Backbone:
């Protein structure tokens, strides 16, 4: 049964024919659309490496069927920078050495963008750590990750205040 | 994952008809079902995607002051709904202590209540499991069973129910609204999940094709908002299932407990309501003695099902501490930090 869906991926509308309803958003991005920035760690919701934003909310793309998300707007790590200008969360990850091997990093960054959008953690390190607990880092770069998220949160809040 | 057909009904009645067909399973967000399908534990031949049925995603205040939570309301949206969290703080606290932010953004009210056990032998298709395959035996009985049940278990199954959300709902007498081909019915949450007995494969009172459409809490439940806590002990601070958890709520007037609500998670195959403990607390003065007594009563029937005698003492302590925290008052900041013993706010000593 051919199944056709439309997704807006990083701002670009795409029509996608699925040959099988089993395809997850993660496999669709990586295996069929060549967007390999989103990583597969566990494929079972346990690590957060596959985090993307769907309609502005961070979710685990490994536990989401593509077919269920017909019409959705998807943001992946590839869509975060504006040309050569990195997103404030990306800049903060570099500034704070918030990575070693980098495998978890796209998921961490997308999760941090989601967290800041949710507006529940502010710059309280305890709440940032709790809010980021769905992203494991095997290299243990957590200290830098927490600092980076707090700095990005502050940068984005002061930008928003300047704009207001 | 096995092959399956995919259908997306656009109304409750279509869903109920499709769900009753043999081999069908409802799909909400899929954060539990797809995981089980990837492991070959669940093998539905048809997924009935209920995720877009209109009218199931609202949080409504009812004329009598209660609240009706649609089956498709996402766990995060419920926890962060200000009015809901103010009136039912321990439900919000329980939701926020479950899974991760990503999972809570997807997970639904109905799916959370129907998530299946995390018993590792249930997950391992090479092991014997009566729940997966009735009559096969239970490898957990003589296996790694530190995390297994201490209340309500049977020789057929010693697993626990992993839902945090269900625990305060059981304490607060939530009602589950169910729709099937025969129409609508309602079941108290405390009767919704079944203890294993000889039939651990039958997990709830739902008949094939029956759909959860909503969960309701009454205005009475909101009367506990001033003194309510969910406390969850786990093997790491966050993103882990409960070893033991407790939802504790008190109504206190003139220094006396007027009424108490108490339920436990992580100890049985259903959220465990502790009614004897509640009865003993009613009329008592809040404090170490009455809380210890309540804790002892709640665990009076507990028996280890393996290497888990520690859970009985742990549950007593979690209850006493949850009651102490509840008596001190629901934290100002809502939603409260997830119910971790390491979380700030609502200290034992202030
Ligand atoms: C790594 C990880 C950690 C987790 N940690 C926790 C935790 O600490 N605490 C906790 O409570 N949970 C935890 N969870 C579980 C999570 O809360 C559940 O997976 C989620 O709530 C299920 O909701 P869903 O909408 O994705 O359900 P689905 O996976 O879509 O469905 C689950 C089941 O419910 C059925 N179903 C769904 N909706 C309905 C309905 N309306 N009527 C009838 N049947 C229905 C489905 O057929 C299926 O059998 C964790 C999950 C993962 C992957
Ligand atoms: S405890 Fe229950 S779920 Fe676990 S193996 Fe035994 S029968 Fe299966
Ligand atoms: S790959 Fe999705 S959570 Fe690990
Ligand atoms: S940087 Fe290596 S896993 Fe996080």
Residues:
């Amino acid at each position: 049964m051919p199944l056709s869906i439309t997704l807006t991926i990083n701002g670009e509308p795409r029509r996608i024919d699925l040959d099988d309803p089993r395809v997850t958003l993660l496999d669709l991005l990586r295996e069929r659309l060549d967007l390999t920035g989103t990583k597969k760690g566990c494929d079972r919701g346990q690590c957060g490496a596959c985090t993307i934003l769907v309609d502005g909310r961070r979710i685990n793309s490994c536990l989401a069927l593509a077919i269920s998300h017909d019409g959705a707007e998807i943001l992946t790590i590839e869509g975060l920078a504006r040309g050569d200008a990195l997103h404030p969360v990306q800049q903060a990850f570099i500034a704070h050495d918030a990575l070693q091997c980098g495998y978890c990093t796209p998921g961490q960054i997308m999760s941090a963008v989601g967290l800041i959008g949710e507006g529940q953690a502010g710059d309280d390190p305890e709440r940032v750590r709790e809010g980021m607990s769905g992203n494991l880092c095997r290299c243990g770069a957590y200290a830098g990750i927490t600092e980076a998220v707090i700095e990005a949160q502050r940068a984005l809040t002061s930008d928003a205040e300047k704009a207001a | 994952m096995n092959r399956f057909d995919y259908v997306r009904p656009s109304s409750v009645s279509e869903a109920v008809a499709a769900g009753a067909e043999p081999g069908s399973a409802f799909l909400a967000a899929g954060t539990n079902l797809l995981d089980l399908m990837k492991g070959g534990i669940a093998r539905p031949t048809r997924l009935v995607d209920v995720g877009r049925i209109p009218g199931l995603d609202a949080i409504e205040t009812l004329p009598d002051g209660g609240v009706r939570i649609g089956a498709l309301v996402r766990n995060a949206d419920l926890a962060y709904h200000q009015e809901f969290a103010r009136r039912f703080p321990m439900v919000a606290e329980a939701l926020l202590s479950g899974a991760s932010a990503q999972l809570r953004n997807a997970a639904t009210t109905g799916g959370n209540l129907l998530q299946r056990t995390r018993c590792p032998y249930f997950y391992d298709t090479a092991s014997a499991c009566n729940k997966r395959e009735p009559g096969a035996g239970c490898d957990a009985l003589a296996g790694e069973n530190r995390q297994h049940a201490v209340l309500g278990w049977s020789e057929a199954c010693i697993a626990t129910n992993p839902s945090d959300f269900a625990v305060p709902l059981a304490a607060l007498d939530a009602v589950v609204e169910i729709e099937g081909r025969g129409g609508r019915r309602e079941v108290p949450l405390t009767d919704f999940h079944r203890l294993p007995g000889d039939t651990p494969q039958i997990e709830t009172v739902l008949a094939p094709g029956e759909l959860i459409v909503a969960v309701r809490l009454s205005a009475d439940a909101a009367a506990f908002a001033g003194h309510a806590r969910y406390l969850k002990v786990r093997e790491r601070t966050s993103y882990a299932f409960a070893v033991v958890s407790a939802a504790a709520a008190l109504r206190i007037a003139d220094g006396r407990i007027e009424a108490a609500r108490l339920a436990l998670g992580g100890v049985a195959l259903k959220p465990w309501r502790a009614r004897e403990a509640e009865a003993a607390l009613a009329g008592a003065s809040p404090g170490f003695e009455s809380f210890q007594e309540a804790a002892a009563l709640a665990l009076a029937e507990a028996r280890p099902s393996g290497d888990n005698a520690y859970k009985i003492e742990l549950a007593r302590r979690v209850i006493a501490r949850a009651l102490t925290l509840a008596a001190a008052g629901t934290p100002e900041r809502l939603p409260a930090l997830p119910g971790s013993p390491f979380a700030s706010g609502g200290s034992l000593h202030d």
About this structure: Residues A 45-46; B 25-33, 35, 50, 71, 98-99, 103, 106-108, 110-112, 114-115, 162-165, 211-212, 241 surround flavin-adenine dinucleotide (ligand 1) (CB under 6 Å).
